[in-house]
Design a protein that fits this description.
Elements (H helix, E strand, L loop, with lengths): L2 H12 L3 H10 L8 H12 L3 H13 L30
Helix pairs in contact: 1-4, 3-4
Length: about 90
């Protein structure tokens, strides 16, 4: 599953865009310096998200929406179309 596919699945499962979840994380005081386990525990408790989906959102919280070019293009289910992840919601594409 690509990074973007993880984020899209999070949106479908929670009913919130990744941007909304990132804003909620910020309101809780979570940011780039927050340990992954803290964020993962919150996402599991409040949204029943597993580790893989939680880590995709944590990556964006910690590093922003950019991903390595090695994840872009080519074939296979783990490839993204762009080096910039969309967090504004599926409906906005």
């Amino acid at each position: 599953m690509s990074f973007q596919a993880y984020l899209d699945t999070i949106e479908r499962k929670t009913g919130k865009t990744p941007a909304e979840l990132l804003a909620e994380a910020g309101a809780r005081g979570y940011g780039a310096g927050t340990k992954a386990e803290v964020v993962l525990d919150w996402l599991k408790a409040d949204y029943d998200l597993g580790r893989g989906h939680g880590m995709a959102l944590y990556h964006v919280l910690k590093n922003g929406t950019g991903i390595s070019d090695k994840h872009v293009g080519g074939a296979g289910g783990h490839r993204d179309e762009s080096a910039t992840l969309r967090v504004d919601g599926i409906a906005n594409r």
